[in-house]
Please model this.
Amino acid sequence: MHSILLRVVVAGLVVACLASIGIMAQGNPEAAKVQNPVAATPESIAAGKPIYTRYCAVCHGITAEGGSGSDISPPAPNLIDAVWKRGSTDGEIFDVIKNGIQPDLNMEPFGDRIKDPDLWNVVNYVRSLAKKN
Ligand code: HEC
Model:
């Protein structure tokens, strides 16, 4: 009896691992190596908030739970759940915001409008929303 249960648990773990590798494979290994140089202090989070509200909320929603999309833009993903199609590290999130997502750039690049330190502040702000969730 016990060994059957054990096998079921092990099989479940294997499936879960494979699934997470699948999700990670969508990410960006180079960007994942980049460390966030800006500590997630209350100041950084407060600095990220107005930038998020101005540039991101229109698509991702004010609470970052994702948007419904429109004729010209597909739905924008939830940024406060555990699903990160483009990678879950700070470095990968930074890269997505800075350079956008190729090839169709429905997620546009913001590197021309938001300076790097503020991009990190936005990463920290989005993370703070996820923690509240
Ligand atoms: C015009 C609408 C739009 C705006 C504005 C926008 N996004 Fe996006 N964003 C999207 C869409 C659509 C996707 C999904 C694109 C894809 O996967 O191909 C996306 C994807 C992302 C992802 C990847 C999510 C994942 O699951 O890996 C992050 C992170 C992100 N956006 C953050 C931001 C931030 C931060 C801002 C503001 C600086 C912002 N976005 C502004 C539409 C938008």
The radius of gyration is 17 Å.
